[in-house]
Amino acid sequence: MNAVILVCQNTIQKEWRSKALLFLFVITFIILGILTAGLSYFNDNILTEYSMEAVATKALSMFFIFLNVWSYLISTYFGAGTVRSDSEQGVMAQMLSFPISRFEYLLGRLLGSWSLVMAYYLMSLILAVIGISLTVGKLILSFKLFIGLMLNAIPILVVIALAMTFALYLNMIQAFISTFLLTLILVSANGYFQETTVKVAIENLGVMKGLGLILYIIFPHISSWGDLANSFILDIEHKVPVLQEALHLAVTLPLLLAMIWALFRKKEV
Fold first, then answer.
1. pLDDT reading at 44 higher than 70
2. How many distinct structural domains can be found in the chain?
3. Which residues contact 190 (CB under 8 A, 6 or more apart)?
4. How many CB atoms lie within 10 A of CB 204?
5. Which 3-state string (H, E, C) describes the chain?
6. Which structural domain range is residue 65 located in?
7. How confident is the model over 200-254, as pLDDT tens digits?
8. How buried is 102 (Cβ within 10 angstroms: 0-12 exposed, 13-18 middle, 19+ buried)?
9. Model pTM?
């Protein structure tokens, strides 16, 4: 695991030097600033008989949902960029010339990108809690928010893995767009087949519906875990069959990682 940790650390250092994280934090600060300014104005001028604690909690939840979507895009960016830039700049071949196996390199890049996105996610959440709490004069914090954060770590990992797969063969922009489109297809398939019985699903099974069913079966259900996370964020009842989804994830996620590994083993560096 020493080699994996070194590659993971190198991934974090590499992305930090690229200033991408700094740019993302600037964007997040701007959005958070707009949110807190709106809350402050609401607190001072509008409907002061309303519970500002309830309003602030809802604002934090909405910011968290924005952060979920934003983090998926960031995951796509880091997942596609870290492998693609290594390939184009000759870094991949150089690193593999050291006593680092392909498996260790790939796992280190995956975990490094995942750590970056989750660190950004956590820091953004902490800043949001602090900013909104200072605005309303009371600590606005719920343990359920952190449960939502941990649950969203699952689809973030899946999106990074998908982006890395496309980046093995496509350039940065192509890999980003391909991952984005595949993610939308997976979310759509998940939304349709999750609410449909097996009998109805196989009726009139055309090409597109059949493709969607195959993707629904073989890929982790990104939107299911996102919906489960949002249920904690918004404090609403969820309809996700947790045990069923956990068993499906336990099978499909290792298969996805094995597929990436198999493709990378055959790739010329």
1. no
2. 1
3. 216, 221, 222, 223, 224
4. 7
5. CHHHHHHHHHHHHHHHHCCHHHHHHHHHHHHHHHHHHHHHHHHHHCCCCCCHHHHHHHHHHHHHHHHHHHHHHHHHHHHHHHHHHHHHHCHHHHHHCCCCCHHHHHHHHHHHHHHHHHHHHHHHHHHHHHHHHHHHCCCCCCHHHHHHHHHHHHHHHHHHHHHHHHHCCCCHHHHHHHHHHHHHHHHHHHHHHHCCCHHHHHCCCCHHHHHHHHHHHHCCCHHHHHHHHHHHHCCCCCCCCHHHHHHHHHHHHHHHHHHHHHHHHHCCC
6. 2-266
7. 666 666 777 788 888 888 999 988 888 888 788 777 777 788 898 999 999 999 9
8. middle
9. 0.86
Q: How far apart are CA 179 and CA 171, in angstroms?
A: 12
